[in-house]
Design goal:
alpha+beta; DNA primase DNAg catalytic core, N-terminal domain; Dna Topoisomerase Vi A Subunit, Chain: A, domain 2; 5 domains; five-stranded mixed beta sheet; 11% strand
Amino acid sequence: MPRISENVINEIRAQADIVDIIKEYIPLTPKGKNYFGVCPFHQDHSPSMSVSREKQMFKCFSCGAAGNVFKFVSDYENISFIEAVSKVASKVGIPLTITGDYKPKEKFQKEYDVMNLTTLFFQNNLNTSLGTKAKEYLSQRGLNEEMVKVFDIGLALDKNTLYQFLNKKKIAPEDMVSLGLVNQSGLTYHDVFVNRIIFPIHDPLGHVVGFTGRVYDGDYTPKYLNSKETAIFRKGNILFNYHRARDAIRLQKKVIIVEGNMDAIRMYVSGFQNTIALMGTSLTKEQVSLIEKLRVPVILMFDNDEAGKTATVKNGEILGDAGITVEVVRLSGAKDPDEYILANGIQAMKDNIEHPLSYLEFKYNALKENKNLEDTEELASYVKNVLASLENADDITIDITLNKLVQEFHLSYDVLKSQLKEKKIMPVRQSPVVAVSSQKKSKYDMCAEFILYYMMNDVKYVKMYQTKLGYFKSSIYRGIANEIVYYVEKNKKIELADFLSYAETSPLKDEIYRVIKSIKNPEIVETSMEDYIFNIKECTWEEEIKKLKVEMKQTSDIHEKENLAKKIVDFNKKIQEMLEERSVM
């Protein structure tokens, strides 16, 4: 497991001003003693995220997202905590030593090792005399040796060379099969990829998880062969070149999405390094989530055929429903971006990218195709489809679109508006909704969460918990409290920003963040801590009284009833004494 000492993490956190770091990702505006910005972790339309320089914490008052500088960078960039610490360290100029190998998913480390070994084997094949033809092919396609290295491109040979190599490396045949590297037929094994140029597929963290093999010599079919889905390779969770393009996307504030791996590679080597590729024809919710984390507009640049047009309409709608701004580039005179650049050059591609269509404009043009708009029925059908596409649009887009229809077809603005209003009553498609529990949080839970939050912020509240409460009936709250107490005993102090770095290794990490997200008003008042402790005790004793009353009803033993009644009196006495004590404070 990778390790960074707690002292080093705290030093990096102390040197990294959270306001300055977050400003590199989103605009922040000072307001009072804090800074505010549009939250990047939900579809925020007004600044609801507060960033405190004093506490070195961020908090969204809408979705509840919260944490220190490492948490923000980790969630924004969709990277691990260790990667976030490393990235922040480099921003503030602190040299960082990580002990141990990087193992973000320890249970798959064996699989990652096998895939890395396989990648090196394929790369080595390409650099032998047997790779001459494949290298010539790549050169003819405009991929020089430097770019071959950048994309880890290799070569699969014939005669089961991969199986023999891995076998010598003591890799079990069943592991080769489960990773989609070889097929089994009876008692024999055969390489999946034979006589193909190999393009490794990486997950968002940069691990090789699969391969695409392309024919380069002969008429083998299919032209492209992809790895089967495995424990580490799920096409729906991956976008080709995502890990490599992420920094360029952030710098250029735009992401280009193409259909094929070769299109993404061609775009990348041509200077458009903010390009990623689909792993299928339709975006999955996991892929949309990856794109959302980039927080930039999207340009869809799919193949110049009917299937590409259909895919553009479908994926543009999926992205639009997720609140992502979508633009479209439709290339002419070539099937795809790869062919277009080879035929027309880099400048022609640049001109296209600088003049994209809005998604709605593209969709309206697509709806017009193969329609005779002089025909009343076909025109009515077209207009209805345009109105249907506006169901989730903002008011400005609606107004612009309706005015265009009025000008182009001499229709009545009021009629179009009324038709649109009718459609909005019963929308054709619904935006995704987040299910919200109707169950109201109990008084006990609310007070327990506030107590834990206070404890994470100051040692004096830890001492108040220890002397005046000392115990939660809930094992989760009790576990979090124990983590806080342990941290204070070890460090003799506590700051929320530092405690959250420590919490990354805790099995209760998710519960700790849930508590922080639940606090809507983060202001800390000492007298409130007294109230929360009082309420916890009162709730605990009242619950005990209820249990005792149930037991009294269930027993017929007169002595048992007397004992239970005495316990009820004792608990009521405790509550009364506590109330009297509170009244004189």
